[in-house]
Amino acid sequence: MTAAIELTGITKRFPGVIANDNVNLTVKKGEIHAICGENGAGKSTLMKILYGMQSADEGTMKVYGDVVNFNTPNDAIDRGIGMVHQHFMLADQLTVLENIILGAEPTSGGVIKFKEAEAHLAQVAADYGLTIDPNDMVETLEVGERQRVEIIKVLYRGADILILDEPTAVLVPQEVEALFDNMRELKAAGSTIIFIDHKLDEVLEISDSITVLRHGKTVASMANDGVTAHDLAELMVGSELPTPDTAESTVTDTVALEVQGVTVKAEDGRDVVENINFSIHKGEILGIAGVEGNGQGELIDAIIGTTDVSAGSIDLHGVNITKMSVRKRRELGIGYVPEDRHHEGLMLDSPLWENAALGHQTQAPYGSRWLINRDGARNQTELIKEQFDVRTPNIDVSAHALSGGNQQKLIIGRELTSNPSLLIAAHPTRGIDVGAQAAVWEQIRTARAEGLATLLISADLDELIGLSDTIVVMLRGRLVARLAPEDVTPRDLGAYMTGAATQNTDEAA
Amino acid sequence: MRRMLFSLAAPVGAFVVTIIISSIALMLFGSNPISAFGDMLGHAAKLETQVDILNRATPLYISAIAAAIGFRMNLFNIGVEGQYLFAFLIAAQVGSLVVLPQVFHILLITTVAVAVGAAYAGIAGVLKVTRGVNEVISTIMLNAIAISGLIAFLQQRWQAEQENFTSTTLGTNPIEESGLIPNINGLLEIFTRDIGQGKELTGMLIVAGVVGFGYHFLLTRMRFGFDLRASGMNPFAARAGGVPPKQMVVAAMVLSGAAAGLIGLVELNEKAKFSPNPIKGLGFAGIAVALLGRNHPAGMIFAALLFAFLDVSAGILQNTQAATKEIVNIMQGIVLLVAVIAYGVTGRIQAREEARATAEALQETEGRVTEGTEVAV
User: Fold this and answer.
1) How many C-beta neighbours within 10 Å does residue A266 have?
2) Count of A–B CB contacts within 8 Å?
3) Residue B363's CB: how many other CB atoms inside 10 A?
């Protein structure tokens, strides 16, 4: 039997990064095929290539045995491939029917034939056993229902190969069950489903076959038959990168940051961070492990002050900062290395010295209550450039002219040279080369020896284990495990992160 | 040096292209471009015309700064128009009610104008941060409320209070001499012959200079200006860096409105009252001048002078029949359009050049290729 999808030797390079390195994927007709991997493993890139949003540098793609070459998603749609994105693309103010036909309206003489569309929709819904009222306004629908609209939209266009990009990420457990029921119906009706997920319990429950990607490579492809969550976790995280050496403990008795009962609500009222308790001592690095999107980002936002907490308190050196402005918190000594340097870290069109001042412009040497100290700021930037080996001809070039690694070194430098007492470091070495990575680790460790308290969030588990004094695991907005890095392996961590293992203790305080 | 050349390339190129397109437009209208441009330049060579140009450029420049303050943080204050006219009316009325020693009288009128402009713009800022109302919408509405509502109503009311008004006493009651900023003909005449035809160079020119300098100082030296620019460059990074986004929106709108309040003072000082038909459109023209001058304090001086020159040329073209006076509006439109395109193009080239130069400089200093250090992620 010919496979529905057969990808061979797919390679995709971005400047400085190989996103897909000789990836192979075979999906049989009529199966549910899960693709797992850590963030940055290359899952999304692979799906974008399959859906025609990007083109591969090397490799061949076959659909039902025919070699294909997609330049746009329309080419993929013509071949019966449809994709449901993680972020829904629906117009709130239109009805379900209008959303479904949007972009493919059946018309006659410029008038939309709603009757015909509705009949076609009813047919599609009946064929696949999906129920939806075509006249509901999308804005009144629950998240799970919106997702169903997205799926029907793809089916309506005649797709029989569906790509679902992390469909469960936005759903509550009951909705996940409903989705899985729908997926089984689709499979029974003959559709092929490719399903991206990194929650291993879910993958094991629904899929027929599983392919695991790590660092852009296919590391395993197997039938879901006797595979355990532990096996998958180990395949996903691996452990071959250079690891930061664990240094002697410098943890002191003085508490720097105390987080008690912190809860953060998303805009839709869900708890994205739920009753979190932990403390970080001076000289301690607390690592938070977790698959992205499990509330780490919101927890950081709550500590830095860009998000309001709905319950709980945050104390820095005994001062309650729960309601303080970001600026006050910064002045109290919180340093911040954001997850995405282009989003929250830099002003790309401004010179380096202005970027170095950002976040510290109220304090010496960068400035004061009223004025910016240009000389002070420039001298300090020169210092950062030397100390943190920021490779740049001078400090007047715009930030966008630097490579990613050098931008990151500038950010780490500006935060560490401003004598923080608490450093929040989110993925501090993401996307930078090995040499720079080691340098960043060394800088953080030196600061730790001088009494810095650090909250470290990283998707690189070796980095977490190597740097942290304590590791906690976050899953679905809660701390589910507290571990000592000495006796934990990436494999164990992966199991906790994906819910394959649980710790039978109360939430660590 | 390269940077200098680049920043000059766009305006010079835009200027040349504008002349060419304008000439074509003139010919299409059946005019001779050479004689039209000749008349315009000949007229502008006269000292009295130059005074007119400066008098026109002064409010345009202040208006441009008001718009630029908003632009610097991606706020579009379209309400400068309503803010300056409303501030003008209130300041003229308050000024007419009292007689004070000159310094205090001028200060009072100026303060009232600034405060009214700031408060009126502040409404849009507060609406944005509390209710999420887009400032473009709210300032357009506030323009209509100010011009067709408040001004029309108050003007009529204050008119009625005058005892027996004639067509010459229309508008608010005249302000005593003590409330007016004297002309600065004397200052100009140090360098030139005496100014004739009863032309007066507005004292507000000096105020405009101070505002321009203040704008420059605020943006480049003050922490507030840094916060303002950071919010415009990358609001998320600014927020993470401690810049309070809501306060900045209100502060920027208030500051923009404060500058707008000064615009009407040029006419107030000239006519000593709020006349029934004040000069309108300066608020919108200021947006164009700010765009043309790239929000830069010096760039906007040139842009304001160019727009003022074109405005003043309208009269002479009509007098000499060299072309219709509407041609100057067409030219203003052309220069703006061409300049915006030119800035976009050179900006992109410049960014690419910079990235290349940085990479090259690094390879030279390091003397090694960094290819081997790439890592798969």
Assistant:
1) 13
2) 125
3) 13
Torsion region of B181: left, alpha or beta (phi above 0 gives left; psi -120 to 50 gives alpha): beta
The verdict on a CB contact (< 8 Å) between A330 and B237 is: no
pLDDT digits 0-9 by tens, A187-204: 998 899 999 887 778 888
Q: Any idea which residue has 């067709």 for tokens?
A: B148
Q: Which of residues 185-224 of B touch A (CB under 8 A)?
A: 220-224
Averaged pLDDT for residues B240-259: 95
Query: Alpha carbon of B357 to those of A40, A97, A401, B354, B360: distances in Å?
Result: 30, 54, 9, 5, 5
d(CA B323, CA B23): 11
Beta carbons within 8 Å of A126's beta carbon, 6+ residues apart: none
Q: Does residue A420 belong to the interface with chain B, where contact is any CB pair within 8 Å?
A: no
Residue B46, in any domain of the structure: no
Say how far apart CA A358 and CA A367 lie, in whole Å. 10
What are the pLDDT digits (tens) for B296-305?
A: 999 999 999 9
Q: Is the CB of A37 inside 8 Å of chain B's CB atoms?
A: no
Which residues of chain A form CATH 3.40.50.300? 5-237, 250-333+421-509
Which CATH number is associated with domain A5-237?
Answer: 3.40.50.300
Under a CB-based contact definition with an 8 Å cutoff, are residues A241 and A460 in contact?
yes
pLDDT mean by block of 10 residues, chain A; 509 residues: 87 73 91 83 86 89 91 89 85 89 83 88 84 86 84 88 84 79 89 86 89 87 85 71 63 91 87 93 92 86 94 94 94 93 91 94 90 94 91 87 84 93 90 72 89 90 87 91 86 81 57
Does the pLDDT of residue B85 top 90, yes or no?
Answer: yes
Q: Compute the distance between CA of residue A180 and CA of residue A187 in angstroms, rounded to an integer.
A: 10
Looking at residue B168, what is its pLDDT? 62
Q: Which amino acid is at B146?
A: A
Total count of domains within chain B: 1
Cis peptide before A242 (omega within 30 of 0): no
**Three-state DSSP state, A345:** helix
**Higher-confidence position of B340 and B257:** B257
User: Is residue A398 less than 8 Å (CB to CB) from chain B?
Assistant: yes
Strand partners, A278: A259
Q: Encoding tokens for residue B45?
A: 């060579």
Cis preceding-peptide flag for A173 (omega within 30 of 0): no
pLDDT digits (tens, 9 = 90+) for B312-370: 998 888 888 778 888 888 889 998 899 888 888 888 888 888 877 777 776 665 544 34
Beta carbons of B120 and B257 less than 8 angstroms apart: yes
The chain B residue lying nearest A216, using CA atoms, is: B377
The reply to whether B374 touches chain A by the CB within 8 Å rule is yes
Rounded CA-CA distance B231/B217 in Å is: 18
Reported as type and span, the H/E element at residue A319 is: strand A319-320
Concatenate the DSSP letters of all residues of B300-361 into one string. HHHHHHHHHHHHHHHHHHHHHTSS-TTHHHHHHHHHHHHHHHHHHHHHHHHHHHHHHHHHHH
Model confidence over B93-112: pLDDT tens digits?
999 999 999 999 999 999 99
CA distance A471 to A336: 19
pLDDT at residue A498, rounded to an integer:
78
The DSSP output letter for B372 is G
Instruction: Look at residues B279, B204, B273 and name the one whose alpha carbon lies nearest to residue B54.
Output: B204
Q: For residue range A22-33, what is the model confidence (pLDDT) as tens digits?
A: 999 999 999 999
Distance CA A231, CA A491 (A): 8
CATH 3.10.560.10 is the classification of domain A250-333+421-509 = no
> pLDDT (tens digit, 9 = 90+) per residue, B174-191?
898 899 999 999 888 888
B374 within domain boundaries: no
Residue B308 maps to a domain: no
Q: CA-to-CA distance for B352 and A215, rounded, in angstroms?
A: 30
Segments forming the whole domain that contains residue B81: 58-297
